Amino acid sequence: MKISVIMLTYNREELLTRAIDSILNQTFKDFEFIIVDNGSTDRSGAIADEYALKDSRIKIIHREQGNIGSGRNAGLDAATGEYVAFIDDDDYAESDFLEFLYNLAKKHNADIAVCGSTKEENGQQLPNGIYQYDEKYIMDAEQATVNFLWRKLYNAAMPTKLVRREMFDSIRFLNEGKYDDITTTYRYFANAKIVAAHGLPRYCFYRHSGNNSSAATKHHLLNPVQLNEYLAAFRERTEYISKILPQLAGLALYSEWSYMISMVEKIHRYGLNNCADLLVLMCDNLRAHWDDFYYGKYILEFEKVWMERYVK
Questions:
Q1: How far is CA 131 from CA 92, 134, 152, 246, in A?
Q2: How sure is the predictor about 208, in pLDDT bands with cuts at 50, 70 and 90?
Q3: Where do the domains of the chain lie?
Q4: Are residues 194 and 140 in contact, defined by beta-carbon separation less than 8 angstroms?
Q5: In 3-state terms, what secondary structure has residue 54?
Q6: Which among 218, 223, 212, 198 is positioned nearest to 135, based on CA atoms?
Q7: Fold of 3-206
């Protein structure tokens, strides 16, 4: 088996058919499709079962509701493919999604292959900013992690990425917490020997109010639970990258501070009084590291403006 496709679903009966069909209609045929029903209370589990009766490549795992990470881990436990791809149950893949990524990975002997993406919002399929590009990049772990930290070429979302299955033997998703990708994805890049990224769009993210990541992409929805989990994830990320790739310790630390000042600005811009305690915490942290951040080699001009406006 060349590819295991893993999809976690929970109460998405109105969108699930589109996601499943987009995988079954792939030009690349040598795959298994593992659908993890994460304790759905609507017809999502039944819809998946109906598809499994029609296509032997589909495996269904029904489980009690857990977080996204534990659901993906359940899928990984059943995966037998050489590579693993992920799709979210509210998104969809272009017909050559798997073929594109598999050929990219095999051509460059890559541990991770990455494609570009589009986004569907308000009934329109739109370019997805800097995550859609014509160039191809072949990188080692350091180069790939640098691009990750600068949020260039790809983001933390596991869809759009084809990963060699052996990488999951030592790096799994967290079995607690809500925002799984931000806590895990960087670890794959930091440990990959070769990463191949070609930004032609082969995957579409569906943006809607029910997205798990809504608070991360629509900052007026930012809440203390999400912010606190992100701050903890960034702290752990800095420590992890500093250990695995010590030459990137300074950039990782800058990236953590950069996230803080960005959130400070968002809290002020949108008047998010529910985040007041974390605002104080972040400002205290930034103030304590003022010289290293403000006068460091990575800081951007607008971040200096925000530091002077909100922290000084």
A1: 16, 10, 7, 27
A2: confident
A3: 3-206, 218-311
A4: yes
A5: helix
A6: 198
A7: Spore Coat Polysaccharide Biosynthesis Protein SpsA; Chain A (3.90.550)
